[in-house]
């Protein structure tokens, strides 16, 4: 029934059905619902909606990260720009790897996993100000390394044109 209504996924309909039944079984209801089938279906529908919201948020975070480092979203890229974007992503990965461990942890939590500063603070025990400062330092370091790489790329292109 879920597959017919919502498609093959993601999320996987079988996983959603199982989660819905688990939530129904774990629910401490004062009185059983009049229509348990409809109740479980409603739980499943809400789980699917939540999964789509999470996926949409993750896609938006990826687009935001691309925008921060001056990259086009993947769906707007040509073959040449895809190659260049791949090289740029490798440079960003190298830049993140060169950061101190604390800054790496915080930038990954904030930018890639989408955690709020409050969530990071609760999980790590760091103050909000400390988190903000370290993420800003990490962002500046990544931007500086990326700019140096881009300047080198542009210089290389100028040299290639002069050669031709």
Notes on the protein architecture:
The chain has about 160 residues and is mainly alpha-helical. The chain folds into 2 domains: about 1-85, no CATH class; about 100-164, Arc Repressor Mutant, subunit A. About 80% of the residues lie in helices and about 0% in strands. It contains 7 helices and no strands. The chain has helices at about 1-5, 15-25, 35-70, 80-100, 100-110, 115-125, 130-164. α4 (about 80-100) crosses α7 (about 130-164) and α5 packs across α7. The radius of gyration is 23 Å and the shape is elongated. The model has no long low-confidence stretch (mean pLDDT about 80). This is RNA polymerase sigma-70 factor, ECF subfamily. It comes from Bowmanella pacifica.
Please describe the topology of this protein:
Blueprint: H1 2-6, H2 13-26, H3 36-68, H4 79-98, H5 101-112, H6 117-124, H7 128-163
Helix pairs in contact: 2-3, 4-7, 5-7
Query: What is the CA–CA distance across the termini?
Result: 63 Å
Arithmetic mean of pLDDT: 79
| Radius of gyration using CA atoms only | 23 Å
As an assembly, this protein is single chain
The major beta sheet can be summarized as: none
What is the ordering of alpha helices and beta strands? HHHHHHH
Low-confidence stretches: none
Question: What does the overall shape look like?
Answer: elongated
Note the main attributes of this structure.
mainly alpha, elongated, Arc Repressor Mutant, subunit A, 2 domains
